[in-house]
Structure formats: C-alpha cells, structure tokens
Design a protein that fits this description.
By secondary structure, this protein is mainly β. The chain is built from 7 helices and 28 strands. Strands 1, 2, 3, 4 and 5 form a 5-stranded antiparallel β-sheet that branches.
C-alpha cells in the first residue's frame, strides 16, 4: 500500500509540475557524461558556476547538450554547449551558448553568447557561398512555442560572429540559383501585415548578403511540408505546402532566374478560386508536391470536383487532382486524374477523359469504378456507363484469390494486389484505354 501511495503521489506531482515549479525535466536524471563531455562540463562550470541547467537540441543530427565539431580553420575540435542559469536577471537572455576550445589539450571556455530564442530546436553545419567556411545554423523556438527563429554564426579567432538572426517560418540551404554554391533561403512573415516574403542570401567576406526578395501570395497559417526538387531542367526549386486554415491547403513555389528569386501567383483573382488549392475530407487526405509522373521534376497538386460532384458539400465531394508545373512564371497544368489517399494510387487521365469520365467509390469491395458521365444519368453505374473498375485486395485476406478471380492483375506490392476489370464498353468505345496507356498512367505512391 505504501508503494501504491508513493506512486500515486509521484504521478500527481508530475501532473501538477507546472503549477508547483517542478517539471519532468528537473525530475529526470541527466544522461551520464563520457570522459570528453565531463572535461568540457568541468570547464563550463568553472566559467559559469554550477548553478546551470544544460539544454538539449530537440531535433536534427546533434541531440547532445555538448555539440563537438571542428568549426574553424584550425586543427582540433571546439564545443558548443547550451545552458540556462538557475537565476536570470531582468533583461538578460535565459538561454545561452558557451563556446569552448582546446589549448594544450585542455578545454577552456572562450566565449559566451546570448541566444535568440527560448529552446534549441536544432544545430546544423553548412557552407554558404564560396570560401570553404563552416557556418553554424541554430534554430530556436520562442517562449510561445509557435514562433521560430534562427541564428547564423561563424567562428574564427576564438570569437563566434553572429552574421544574421531573424524569425522565420521556413529555412533551407540549397543552390537555388544554380551557380554551384549553396544559398540560404528563408520564408518569414511580416507581423504588421501578415504577408509572407521569401529571401535568398549568400555569404561573402563581408558577411551575409541578401541577393533577392519576393512576396508570396499564399495566405499561410502553417507550413506543413517543404520539398527540394527540380521544376525543370537546370531549375532547382523549393515547393512549400501550407495550411490556409479550415482544412484548406496551398503551395508556393520558389525558384530563380539568375540571382533574382521568383514565386508565381498561386491564388489568382480570389482565394475562393485559387489556382493551387486543395482540402481534406473522408476521400482525400493531405496531398503534397510530388513527382507524380516520374520524370524527375516535381508537380504541384490542386483539387477540383470530379464530374457529378460539383454541387455536393465539400465533405461529400470526390475530387480529381490537377498536377501543375511552372512555365514562364505562371502555373501550367501537366496532368489531371484520380488520386486515392486511402488506397495509395493515382490514375492519370488521358485528355479524352477530361470532363467526361468520373469515379464512383465502392468502399465495401475496396474498388473504384470509373464511368462515363452525362448529367442525365449522373453517377449511375450500369452497363451503359461503366468503363472499368480497379479493385485493391489485401494479400492477407483469406479470400484474396476469390476477389481477384476474373480480373486482371495490374500491379502488386508487399501488402496489396491491384487488379482491374474491363467492360465491353471500355474495350470498344472511344474512351477505351490501351493496356500500355493504363499501365503508364497507373501510379503507386
């Protein structure tokens, strides 16, 4: 009973830690330090005193409070240690970075730097621009945990030089202008207007230089995915998928002509008729930019109701996906077709199917039925409208063999068999697909 009482009290203490000043972080025993880390820690507390708490990066390749790496032009490693003093004077930054270096084989604290945030999100190392330098990018979260900030630091002659620090929504290192060296690209919000801007920076001997900046048209509430890819031959790009709010999503594309950064208008005349817009419902989950046709270039998805679903509510709409690229600074549709989040496949329609073929889900049999559409018959599935049905069969289903009987296997993976059934109308009508057309337009993802 005493053990149960102790556990109950301990659990209550954990649950009420915020109000009593006790946190889980303080109750947990810190990881045991290895010999090198212990030497660094002793040098740290010799410089700061022992009344400190070590802070750990939350993500990335470096998760220790002791980030050890050669960050300057001299041989030997340096150490970056994040910590907070137990007591902080008014106006002082709570989170701090201590830089330690080795002299005659002994670790010594050489510099102490106030950090640009409240928690360390990640630490990464890169070389921006020319010069074969090591630049340090530290990503932070702010006190409210929703805003993000970063700091770009270069270390030389025993001094960390903060080249740039700012808030951001997206931060990527990429050779965006194709000049053979990497640039720093940021997306950030203007707090006064709520508008977003993309900026591209390069490193010079004088520090960080802004090469170009452009506004983004999309109204972001949250960036949910960033893809580095190719827009076309020799055109690197960043594809930024964002949540617009109320389950609606969009995409901004950032690319370069020379050293000038561009982002085409993904909205158009009004937000309600966005060129690049999509939403989620029971039929479709989130869709991100993807090389849907396997040509090495990423495409941008946008949803539109399939014929027959236009007047239904959003939750009831079964949609096609238009896949776009960017040409001459404007969005240009490359493909149109059916996309199934549930079953993990896409079927790209031939041009002769545009506007005259729709889909009807038969979820009980795990199949999608493709029919010719006319307003008089609507979504009726019968011998006069059905073209083809694609069925997805679980390989672990004991009746799998029965469910594929009479159908043609199209493709299979470790979990499922994808098969199809043609109708007479499909085989002979003007909407018929050849076998090679079907195989080339059917895509697993």
């Amino acid at each position: 009973m005493k053990i149960k009482a102790f556990l109950a009290a301990f659990t209550a203490l954990l649950m009420t830690g915020c109000s009593t000043g006790v946190s889980v972080e303080n109750l947990l025993t810190p990881p045991k330090l290895n010999a090198q880390q212990d030497e660094i820690y002793q040098a740290l507390i010799k410089s700061t005193g022992s009344a400190i708490n070590l802070k750990y990066p939350k993500s990335g390749d470096y998760r220790s409070a002791f980030v050890i790496r050669n960050i300057d032009s001299e041989p030997g490693e340096e150490a970056l240690v994040f910590y907070e003093p137990d007591s902080v004077q008014s106006g002082e930054a709570a989170l701090r970075l201590k830089v330690l270096d080795q002299y005659d084989g002994k670790w010594q604290a050489v510099y102490d730097l106030a950090c640009f945030g409240s928690e360390v999100e990640s630490v990464s190392f890169t070389g921006i621009g020319t010069g074969n330098r090591t630049d340090i990018i530290i990503r932070y979260t702010m006190l409210n945990q929703t805003e993000k900030a970063f700091s770009l630091i270069n270390y030389s002659d025993g001094i960390p030089n903060e080249l740039y620090a700012a808030s951001y929504s997206c931060l990527e290192v990429i050779d965006l202008n194709g000049d053979g060296v990497t640039e720093l690209v940021t997306v950030s919000a203007d707090k006064a207007t709520g508008n977003y801007n993309a900026a591209m920076f390069s490193r010079t001997d004088n520090g960080l230089e802004k090469l170009s900046e452009t506004p983004l048209i999309g109204t972001h509430s949250e960036i949910v995915n960033v893809t580095k890819g190719m827009l076309a031959e020799d055109v690197p790009a960043l594809f930024i998928d964002f949540l617009r709010g109320q389950g609606q999503y969009g995409t901004d594309v950032i690319y370069c002509h020379g050293d000038e950064i561009f982002s085409p208008d993904s909205i158009g005349p009004s937000a309600e008729s966005s060129i690049i817009s999509r939403f989620t419902n029971d039929y479709t989950a989130e869709i991100y930019c993807y090389d849907i046709d396997g040509d090495g270039f990423a495409e941008i998805p946008s949803m539109t109701p399939l014929p027959g679903y236009e007047l239904l509510t959003r939750s009831e709409q079964l949609c096609a996906v238009r896949w776009y690229t960017v040409k001459y600074k404007n969005f240009s549709m490359e493909h149109y077709g059916y996309y199934s989040s549930k079953y993990g496949f896409a079927l790209l329609f031939p041009h002769r199917w545009y506007g005259v073929v729709t889909a009807v889900p038969n979820l009980q049999e795990n199949e999608i039925i493709f029919i010719s559409y006319n307003p008089m018959k609507g979504l009726t599935v019968d011998q006069s409208t059905e073209l083809m049905r694609i069925r997805i069969v679980d390989k672990n289903d004991e009746t799998a063999a029965e469910k594929v009987e009479g159908m043609t296997v199209l493709i299979e993976n470790e979990e499922s068999i994808y098969c199809y059934l043609e109708t007479d109308g499909y085989k002979t009508g003007k909407l018929a697909l050849t076998e090679s057309e079907l195989k080339n337009s059917f895509i697993l993802f």
